[in-house]
Amino acid sequence: MKTKSFTKGLVGCALLAASLVTGCKEYDDTGIRKDIADLQGRVESLEAWCETAKGQISALQSLVTAVESRDYITGVEPVTEAGKETGYAISLGSGKTFTVKHGTQGDPGVTPQIGVAKDEANPSDENYYWTVKTGDDEPEFIVDPATDGKMPVTGEKGDTPELSVAEHNGRLYWKVGEDWLLSDGAKVPATGEQGDAIFAENGVDYTTDPNSVTFTLADGTTFQVPYASTLLTIVADEENVNTFSVTSTLFEESGNVVDIRVESENADGMTIATRVATTRWTVESEINGDVLTITADPANAVELGEKALLKVTVSDATGQVLASGRTVFTNARKDNAILASSPKILANALNNDPEITEIRLDDDLALDQTLVIEFGDAAQRSVRTAQTLEKTIDLNGKTLTGPKNGSTILFINQGTVTFKNGTIDIANAWNQHADIGVGVDKSQDNPKSDEVVSKATAKFHKVKLNACVLVRYGSSVEITDSEVENPLYCVTTNANASKADTEPVTVKITNTKLTGETPVMLNVPSSVEIDNCTITGGWQGVMMRGGTATIKNSRISLQEELAANEGSWLKGRKIKENWGSGNEIPVAGITMGDNTGTAYQYPTSVTLENTQVSGYEDYWAVFADATETCTVNFKYNEQCTFSPKLDQEQSFKQGLSAGKYITVNNKAVVTE
């Protein structure tokens, strides 16, 4: 095949009429004006035709790309315009689409026909190149002006020729790019009725052979592309990331070949691009009966959250595509981090995968009671001391919700779990179960045992937490820059033994707002640090029935709407009688100590710095009672304020101890 030659030429600068308009002599120019109008109309018509041809040249380029990359067709849908069928929309297995317009015959010899062909003179060259055919001439290769060689259709140097018309000496001629189209050395005129420059009439045949689609170009060239009309459904695994399953009887047929490919998106986050090198994705698969299981394992170059495309095709022994499927998924694993898109993935990462240290929520997740979210072994048989497990759950602006049916839904049995950047909404009405349990003791074997089985730490950073966190002996909770709300307790403990000879609970709360009936309720030996917090309760803001607390730069107050106004609710309750369990004790912004003589037998120390404490009007901001064992040591500096005003008679001498065993700023309230 020859290379079609073109000659450079300037577009005519003036119409034919311009050369005739000379001198001042009057003459009848009606004919000239009609010729000009006809020429302008012809130009506009051809320009519109060229624009259509441009789209079809692009469609042909997509077709050649599909052939070269061994792509296949998944759908052929008619396209209608103004109620008339005008072509077909072609869908490829790669996800790309293009539209082929129905060709029109037109007048012979006047329409340049753009096509593609391989170079028969160079059999080792598998590339396609653009061709042009005029009249009865043989197709010839189009010259690439950048190289003066053949113009490739695809690849790095692939381009598309541009058809246009231009006027020369009052007539219109064809151009390809910037060059005149020549035939036997003469410009090819753009006259007569234009036909199709790319695809022939009825150039798409998808009915003759159910396994392929045949495309016919205007110059007679044909292409056949496999047609996979059976679509496979790819289902993501609910428990394991980057894992999928496909069900089809085709997997059971001997001789069929399954091809699995994974493609990643561009680094700039745009649409799915070219195939990725095998060094990036490792694809493992297993066929069991009619089920294909696929696991896509990314290499370090693939980012967490990066979009990817999974494609599955089934072919027979001859290479004919029988079925195909594709799905876009989000890469959910990188190094020691995963994206959790389901509660089961979250549970599996916490419970069963020790390699995972960071879990990021990919969506809002709703937990249910059939699924226990548990970190660490909860076995009661032996005491564990060395705990090094750490995991971070990045809520990623999402919300973790729970069933709210009165049972613990999150167990942190050992090690450290950090929650950050989102919302946890799992609050239950209190029925001896918290929403989040931290640590394990032997109380399940012996309700009176305080022996530690395993220590754990729960951390919350920038979390909106609607839940109760129960911290068991020897364990800790840290809350920073958060909001915690619960109908009853926000942070609490559970006293199993009367004397608790084990390590204390540790509580650190900073820059946080806590709201509940008793937001901080601690009834075992505790080490507490509260700084720059706003605590609003109904019965108590802070309840310390044992341990040491330092509260700085904070505001503690009460609001009656937060109190459960039922049962023993009275603002002046439990003053001259033994305190009950839990928060069944006197009402105050801060309530300290114990007076039972049988339970909660440990001393309490509370220190305030630059803190405001408020109680109900006509009652008291702080209240304390004590025994010889349950002593109370209360300190505050000059920057602290109390409302009602602090009065030792009201706050420290009303209880059963009448002020004995209580010191305020290192001075005994009652001296013997």
From TrEMBL:
Gene3D superfamilies assigned to the protein according to its UniProt record, in alphabetical order: 2.160.20.20
Organism: Rikenella microfusus
Protein name: DUF4988 domain-containing protein
Record InterPro entries: Autotransporter_pectin_lyase_C, DUF4988, Pectin_lyase_fold/virulence
Positions of the DUF4988 domain: 33-132
Pfam families: DUF4988 (PF16378)
